[in-house]
Amino acid sequence: MLNKVLVPDIGDFEKVEIIEVLVKTGDKIKKNDSIVTLESDKSSVEVPSTLEGTVENINIKIGDKVSKGDLLISVEIEGKKTEETKKEEKEEKIPLDTEKIIKEAETTLKKKEDKIILDKPKERKETEKSTIQVNSKEDLDPVETKEWLESLSAVLEKDGKNRAQFLIKQLIEHSYKEGSDLVLSRNTPYINTISPEEEIKSPGDQNIERKIRSLIRWNAAAMVVRANKKNSELGGHIGTFASAATLYDVGMNHFWRAKNNKFGGDLIYFQGHSAPGMYARAFLEGRINKSELDKFRQEVKPGGLSSYPHPWLMPKFWQFPTVSMGLGPIMSIYQARFNKYLINRGLLKDEGRKIWCHLGDGETDEPESLGAIGLAAREKLDNLIFVVNCNLQRLDGPVRGNGKIIQELEGIFRGAGWNVIKVIWGSYWDSLLSKDKSGLLIKRMGEALDGEYQAFKAKGGAYVRENFFGKYPELLNLVSQMTDKDIWKLNRGGHDPHKVYSAYHSAMQNKGSPSVILAKTIKGYGMGKSGESINITHQQKKLDENDLLYYRDRFDVPLTNEQVKNIEYYKPPENSPEIKYLKECRIKLGGNLPERSSFAKAIKTPQQDIFSAMKESTGEKEMSTTMVLVRMLTNLLRDKNVAPRLVPIIPDEARTFGMEGFFNKIGIYAHEGQKYEPVDSEQLSFYREDIKGQVLEEGLTEAGAMSSWIAAGTSYSNHDISMIPIYLFYSMFGFQRIGDLAWAAGDNQTRGFLIGATSGRTTLAGEGLQHGDGHSHILSSVIPNCKSYDPTFGYELATIFREGLKRMYEKRENIFYYITTMNENYPHPAMPKDKSVEEGILQGMYLFKEFKNHKKTQIQLLGSGAILREMIKAAEILQNDYKIDSNVWSVTSFNELRKNAIEIERYNLLNPDKNPKKTFIESCLSKTEGPIVSASDYIRMNSDQIRPFVGKSFYSFGTDGYGRSDTRKNLRKFFEVDKEHIVTYSLSILAKEQLISSKYAKEAIKKYNIDPEKPIPTKL
Q1: CB neighbour class for 595 (10 Å; exposed up to 12, middle 13-18, buried from 19)
Q2: Looking at residue 84, what is its pLDDT?
Q3: How far is CA 672 from the centre of its chain?
Q4: Which of residues 405 and 78 earns the better pLDDT score?
Q5: What are phi and psi of 830, to 5 degrees?
Q6: What's the DSSP call for residue 128?
Q7: Residue 136 has pLDDT above 80, yes or no
């Protein structure tokens, strides 16, 4: 029987053109197979079949215009359908059927029921039971308070903490209902989250681990001091790693798993200033030798060690560039999310890998550090663990001298939905806390400010006794049997390997949310008076002989006084217990860290036919280069090699870019699928979320979208699978907004496409000053491995894009592409047949058209992007009205032309005895006649990049100044890059070069109503 496939609801569009028919008569098709492609002036979308069967009739052809309800094809369906089957098929058209929702709800309820299992409380020994005391000074009714607390204790003992937490939550909700508007704190007392009774002790040999940690501390400090003894310009940091050594040591010995042939490896974002410690550990492991340690921060010659983690400089060692504060945290969040994305799409095996990010408490001031923590909680990224080294100090002084940074961060993270683990106090405090029956010690811990805690560790045990414990006589009595030395030994949690191990273990076991460990440490731990817990610690890079002797003695490093004086490294023999233990730990964890490698397979470049349609003329049909790109991506989604690897990334602008057709075709990634029916579910391009979705809709976060792009673009190394991220954004909100991340992307050897859509200062007409991009190509030009292009026509874009795929994914070059596209609709010509055109497009320029009717006066017109079309119109006017010939050159990339030119110039200068090479600019322009006029929709600096290399009179024009809102015509006139200004300037230039009379320029100024007295646009 025959069934009809009709045009579905396509939104607010009527008479939409069919640009492709994807089936032919006799084809067997399945439900959701694409049958035609529709294209309006704003978007392109494939229409899926609603039936399964054999195509009997095709009722449309390319070029037809259709609306909702029009017949597309007829399908022969085998067998007769029952009414029940028809009903089922009708129901299947609903994106989310009721039965599925019910099943999901039942599953969720079952899981919740499973989770509500009362945890069995640990049996408390009789000796542990204590009488609850209540401080009556701040309590209106101590007896009542005592009864409440005793009741809660009984619940904890009998039914466990889950029941107790449930009751507390019910009480809070009840108080709100009864009219209480007090906001209850998300903070817990200023003590460790994990009690001593619940601690999981480290299984490691603590004596050997302390020795190893001490040697790493010494070698890290010695490396920095030796470098600065050689040359004080080199700098370096000792204090940060000194405070974090235990945090790294415990992870390296017991938790962080390396990549190998059986496991994908955990990903560790090392805090940048701790790099010396990583080098020192690698020295003990035998991965770095003494000579390399002595080249710390001396990288010009081979074998040097980079100042901080930089994959570009040490591509086999560092995985992530993290030293620009805030970038490590946000990149790690999106890395964790991308890991889940790959798993949910079935591209990566779920191996329980973890992403660890180390950062400092001062670093959390950066918006990027905390700006995406909500996403991590929403997406339930339990594969993500933050370790915040809370040494309470920034570069100049306390992070929160008048407050408590750990409590502040606890509230922020817990409020966002993270699992928070505080590691504040070391084991030496446990006995004191157990004796504190009144809670006065905990109260004092909560009262003291971070500025005071800094002083406590800088001024000795007697000072702590007097100023910390001395505030309350009861606390002085609590420590009366302790010497000042005993008080000084009261350690902080971040320096206690057992406390750190227990926190890491707890974070590893946590399910359903990301974890953050807030570890309290001392900046410059072990550096003594020269740098321990004092404001200058961060800048400290020199230690005198007495400081070094103190450091040696503090950590029991087996060096003589003479060896200390010479600042010698220390490495035990290979068969020593320390080295054997160190290596055994890493063998158990799969290998060395940090280490960067890639086993990703190349992706074959798609065939030319995928791009062929973009190289043909559109005739009278007008379209933007953004639409050309969308059409090209649609074609790429049909390539079996490329399609699964494409990662479209959009910061909430898909409809602006005409990409809403991707919503239904490949889906929007959502870690829980779609639990609601979207308001536009009846339309063809409805907002379809799916756990296997391919599009990353990031919302209004350019930094987040860029971090996703970096995660996808480095997947070839981090996950051994090459992905092709294509991030589309308003070009103004690209490099200007996230320049630091773009620089880090280059350092990280990211591969992928950045698409600056709606580009150009006059092309995005009505948006105005903040949106009009006139300089993104200047910003992109500073990144050495970024290749940027500003194409005008579809065939240019197709040629550049295919070359990008070939170089990045088949040849596996560590480069990335920035391509600007526009939202201005106009016809696109066919690609010229000349074989040199493709090379010119890729090198940066080619001859688009010659105007040579008169063979007298000639001028060279160089146009780029949107303004090339103004150049073409200007050339026509010059020829028809003024009998001036011209060559019109399409400049696809001033940046690429400049890169080639400076490289050739350098070669020629360094090889004066050899025949000079020609730049690509010279090969194009050396045999032409007349001055050069160059213009783009960007500031003049864009085309000025090639000025030194043209060897002719050169005049550049552009859109210098602030953008503004108006029509494209008016904007181009205002910025003096319209055809009339180009004609006028060309005539004036030819007059200046004494090639024509100046009267023609004067006539043009009058003819086109150009005001010579108008201020330059930069002043308006």
Answers
A1: middle
A2: 44
A3: 22
A4: 405
A5: -75, 155
A6: G
A7: no
Reported residue count of the chain is: 1020
Query: How many angstroms separate the CA atoms of 458 and 1000, rounded?
Result: 81
Contact 807, 776 (CB under 8 A): no
Whether the upstream peptide bond of residue 791 has omega within 30° of 0, thus cis, is no
Query: What pLDDT is attached to residue 532?
Result: 63
Give CA separation, 15 vs 91, 288, 536, 566, 634, in Å.
Answer: 28, 68, 71, 84, 21
Which amino acid, 419? Answer: N
The 8-class DSSP code of residue 188 comes to P
Of residues 847 and 535, the one with the higher pLDDT is 847
- Model pLDDT, residue 593: 97
pLDDT bin (cut points 50, 70, 90) of residue 856 is confident
| Four-residue CA torsion sign, 16, 20, 21, 23 | negative
Crossing angle, helix 275-285 and helix 239-254, to 10 degrees?
50
Distance between CA 724 and CA 39 in Å, rounded? 25
- Please give the span between the terminal C-alpha atoms of the chain, in angstroms, as a whole number: 70
Question: Which stretch of DSSP H or E encloses residue 328?
Answer: helix 327-344
Cα(832)–Cα(849) distance, integer angstroms: 10
Let me know: does 795 contact 828? Beta carbons within 8 Å: yes
Q: Letter for the amino acid at 342?
A: L
DSSP secondary structure of 218-282: HHHHHHHHHHHHH-TTS---SHHHHHHHHHHHHHHHHT-PPPBTTB---EEE--GGGHHHHHHHH
Residue pair 689/674 in contact (Cβ under 8 Å)? The answer is: yes
Instruction: Return d(Cα 102, Cα 925) in angstroms, integer.
Output: 70
Region for 542 from its dihedrals, namely left if φ exceeds 0, alpha if ψ lies in -120 to 50, beta otherwise: beta
Percent of residues, the chain, with pLDDT higher than 90: 73
Strands 34-39 and 44-48 come out as antiparallel
Query: If you write DSSP's letter for every residue of 355-411 in order, what string do you get?
Result: EEEEEETGGGGSHHHHTTHHHHHHTT-TTEEEEEEE-SB-SSSBSSTTS-HHHHHHH
Determine the Cα angle at 406 with ends 404 and 412, to 5°: 105
Q: Please give the pLDDT value at position 844.
A: 98
Rounded Cα–Cα distance for residues 206 and 198 (Å): 20
Say which residues have a Cβ less than 8 Å from residue 656's Cβ, sequence separation at least 6.
757, 758, 823
Separation of CA 205 from chain center: 39
Helix axes 894-910, 836-843, angle to 10 degrees: 90
Instruction: Return d(Cα 734, Cα 764) in angstroms, integer.
Output: 15
What is the rounded CA–CA span in Å between residue 930 and residue 950?
A: 12
Give the pLDDT confidence score for residue 547 in this predicted structure. 85
**901-947, pLDDT tens digit by residue?**
999 999 999 999 999 999 999 999 999 999 999 999 999 999 999 99
579-588, 604-613, 881-890: least confidently modelled range: 604-613
Q: How confident is the model at residue 977 (pLDDT cuts 50, 70, 90)?
A: very high
Residue 115 has pLDDT above 60, yes or no: no
Structure tokens belonging to residue 798:
């197709």
Concatenating the DSSP letter of every residue in 72-127 gives EEEEE-SSPPPHHHHHHHHHHTSSS-HHHHHHHHHHHHHHHHHH--PPPPPPPPGG
State how far Cα 639 lies from the chain centre: 27
Angle between helices 239-254 and 206-230 (to 10 degrees): 140
> 573, 564, 563, 555: which is closest to 214 by C-alpha?
555
Tokens of 853: 């009717």
Q: Which of 699, 690, 655 is nearest to 672 (CA)?
A: 690
For residue 200, give both structure tokens. 């999981």
Q: What are φ and ψ of residue 360, in 5° steps? A: -95, 160
**Average pLDDT, stretch 264-269?**
98
